[in-house]
Design brief:
The chain is an all-alpha fold. The chain contains twelve helices and two strands. The protein is globular, with a radius of gyration of 30 Å.
Length: 293
Amino acid sequence: MATALKIKDAEETTLVGAPAAQGTTSDAKPSRLPRLSRKQLGNIGMVFLSLSAGALLWHIATAINLDFYINFSNVPSPWRVLTAFLGHIQTEIFWTHIGVSMRRILISYSLATVLGIFIGLIMGRSRIARAFIMPYIEVVRPIPAVAWIPLAILMWPTEESSIIYITFLGALFPIVLNTLHGVEQTPEVLVRAVQSLGASRWAVFRHVVIPAALPSIAAGLAIGMGVSWFSLLAGEIISGQYGIGYFTWDAYSLINYQDIVVGMLVIGFLGTGSTAAVKMITKPMLKWQKRTR
């Protein structure tokens, strides 16, 4: 009798405990997605407020035909520009213009990144290389992109290659100079400390010089992206048949004011997005800065 009661009590305990175990498993909460902090939400709200205020001032200036030193009588209203933009995004040719410009940026900027970082690192660590290359940089760098267009058309076999060349030059010099600056700012104490431990020149270059120069390299890449868009548009306006720069210039030739503003705003957003992408790509390389703070 006592044995039967023990078995019965054990079965009841098992039955009572089973739902509790199941409930523990079913009540496990899934991992939540990271939420934006108050600071991030505040920044987003400030950006939205700033853009809204700018659009409102633009609307008021066009509505009253403001003519006080700056003439807004021929400037289209925000609503007309938005309507034109919504119409263009439904056409294939508009996306062709954007795609061609993005392809040119990708090719020229990639070449400028590889060559610019390489030249900057070599110049920063070699006095001979710096003395040999710097005169060419100082002479060629002040030449604007528009001045290169006639010669680039004569030098390169196609208009496409000439536009890419002009865009490449625009991105190259900021990357080279910022990389050079970063290498020069490498603390000599760190270099000597690593050398005293028996590190080779390549080890010093890889583990000390390059990491120390990364912040300046990242800044040069961001600046180079902005300048590359400026150079690209100059080339597309003069010698292009496709591209968002050609689209904007063609709208000006046809006296299509709202399309001019559409092209300008698309260029601005593409440039902003490209620069943000560069910063996002280079951000993981700078994690060591947070550890040292």
